[in-house]
Design a protein that fits this description.
Layout (H helix, E strand, L loop, with lengths): L1 H17 L1 H43 L6 H59 L4 H23 L1 H10 L1 H20 L1 H15 L2 H43 L4 H11 L5 H18 L1 H26 L8 H15 L1 H28 L15
Length: 379
């Protein structure tokens, strides 16, 4: 059996190398077909913790008499998706129109800003005695940059129109993913019971125990990480919206949404979200307001990093800032935005598994497991 497995694996690997493009195209097609199911599994995983909170509330305050757990689960799923539907209705009826209006106003102001910036810089060059060919080269360069940016912004509308034609596919996939997530949430226990039954039928007990341990670490790390990051991002975005309105900044809703979305990325997210906000405030309010916005964002991120993140996320990541940056850059370079989101918790899981393995080996050798015991003390 071992020789047969080795031979089959070698032939399969050789076949993949010879037909690499064909295999990758086939994988892409399969992934496109499975997109609704993958999205549904992701939705079910993200909604599972809120569903448990809703179930506890229903069991304690609503259904005080004994009822079937399955009935509470069904009611909990209905309440959960009603809350999600209410949030989506609020988004499309209140938030989205204001964002579109802000983008339209911003789109109209961009040409004025760059024309004024070009004129001011040309005047500054003349005042400092830069004339002749040098002035012409710099002036042409500025004009080319301005024209290029205006062309890029002019192409945004056709892109949005192209995206609008793909909404039918997105809506269909989202509907199918929602159906899959509802099925998984309602029948979660039976679904996992079937998987455990299959594993007990084909795998030794020791391997099943190791798989269960790894899955528990994955679930705890990814679950706490994503729920914590999303909660933190919503709080930071709300604080940004309130602070911008109190300070009288324009485009408060648009910039707050940007800050909320980028704050999901640890460490780098706050800085990424501040850049477009500063640029927008610079175009609409001038350098003084842009500086004030930058100071406000800096204060907000200090509150987030020193107060909110330790309270909400805590030590669920268990990875230093250096390795977080490595995970973000490596994951983003290999898998794009999905890699940025999944890189940090994946690296955290790897570190936890390595830590468990190393500590078990050290215990067998009767050596200390504390890191401090291996710090060299030099005089």
């Amino acid at each position: 059996m071992t020789y047969l497995i080795i031979t089959f694996t070698s032939i399969s690997f050789y076949f993949i190398l010879l037909n690499f493009n064909w295999v990758t195209n086939g994988i892409h097609k399969i992934m496109d077909i499975l997109n609704p199911f993958i999205l549904g599994i992701a939705m079910a995983y993200l909604f599972w913790r809120p569903l448990r909170c809703i179930e506890r509330y229903l069991d304690k305050y609503v259904f005080r008499q004994k009822v079937a757990k399955h009935f509470i689960r069904v009611v909990g799923v209905i309440v959960l998706y009603l809350i999600v539907l209410l949030g989506l209705v609020s988004l499309f009826s209140f938030v989205l129109p204001q964002i579109i209006q802000s983008l339209d106003i911003l789109y109209q102001k961009i040409p004025e800003f760059f024309k004024g910036f070009e004129a001011s810089l040309n005047t500054l060059l003349l005042q400092n005695g830069i004339e002749g060919n040098a002035y012409q080269v710099i002036s042409d360069f500025i004009g080319d940059i301005s024209g290029m940016i205006l062309q890029i912004t002019g192409k945004v509308i056709p892109v949005l129109v192209d995206v609008s034609f793909k909404l039918t596919s997105v809506v269909l996939n989202t509907f199918l993913a929602t159906v899959v997530s509802i099925y998984l949430l309602v029948d979660k226990e039976r679904f996992f019971a079937r998987n455990r039954k299959l594993m007990h039928a084909v795998l030794p007990g020791k391997i099943i125990e190791h798989i269960g341990l790894v899955m528990d670490i994955f679930d705890d790390t990814f679950g706490r990480y994503f729920v914590g990051q999303m909660t933190d991002a919503l709080i930071v975005g709300s604080l940004c919206f309130v602070a911008m309105n109190l300070c009288g900044f324009e485009f408060s809703l648009l910039i707050s949404v940007i800050v909320t979305c980028t704050n999901v990325i640890p460490y780098l997210g706050p800085f990424i979200g501040a850049v477009p906000g500063i640029f927008i405030i610079l175009m609409t309010g001038g350098p003084v307001q842009a500086l004030g916005f930058g100071i406000m964002i800096f204060i907000l991120q200090q509150i987030d990093g020193n107060i909110l993140v330790p309270k909400i996320i805590g030590d669920s990541i268990g990875v230093s800032g250096f390795w977080v940056l490595v995970a973000i850059m490596l994951g983003g370079g290999l898998f794009g935005f999905i890699g940025v989101l999944l890189g940090v918790p994946t690296l955290s899981v790897v570190f936890k598994l390595l830590k468990m393995y190393a500590e078990n080996r050290l215990r067998k050798k009767d050596k200390p497991i504390e890191t401090e015991a291996y710090i060299e003390k030099r005089t």
